[in-house]
């Protein structure tokens, strides 16, 4: 089980609101904007993501059974604030770590392997951006 999955409650209540203030401006911290499947409410989720050409790879640090991923799959896409740009993204597709990790900078790759122990990744095609 990824380390982050064990800390879900405290992270969501305390850390996520703080991270949302700085995410999306630089580095690999991004803000994913998606629509709730049942409520239709717009949700903002901080994530670790990496762009490589026309694809954004997202590390599933909480594992593959997360609400934001279900919402994005149901909607067929989402928007993401990445390095100051808003990107329109298509439907996510699971990719193995062997495909995802080479797209990640060495220091972040090491963190994803340990202590985070992230084994699951998805990629989303970039459909457009401003």
What does this structure look like?
The chain has a single domain, classed as Pnp Oxidase, Chain A (Roll), CATH 2.30.110. With 130 residues, the protein is α+β, with helices and mostly antiparallel strands. Strand 1 and strand 2 form a beta hairpin. The relative contact order is 0.21. The chain is globular and about 35 Å long. The longest helix has 15 residues. It is 31% helix and 35% strand. The protein has 5 helices and 7 strands. The protein has a 6-stranded antiparallel β-barrel. This is Deazaflavin-dependent oxidoreductase (Nitroreductase family). GO terms for molecular function: oxidoreductase activity. It comes from Cellulomonas hominis. InterPro entries: F420H2_quin_Rdtase, Split_barrel_FMN-bd. It holds the Pfam family F420H2_quin_red.
Which CATH class applies here? Mainly Beta
By helix and strand content, what is the structural category? alpha+beta
Q: What Rg do the Cα atoms give?
A: 14 Å
**Might you state the CATH topology name?**
Pnp Oxidase, Chain A
Can you give the helix content as a percent range?
25-40%
Which strand order do you get reading across the main beta sheet? 1-2-3-7-5-4
What is the beta-strand fraction?
25-35%
By CATH, the architecture is named Roll
Largest sheet: 6 strands, antiparallel, barrel
Through-space gap between termini:
37 Å
**Runs with pLDDT <50, length 5+?**
none
- Look at the structure and name the CATH superfamily: Electron Transport, Fmn-binding Protein, Chain A
Mean pLDDT across all amino acids: 92
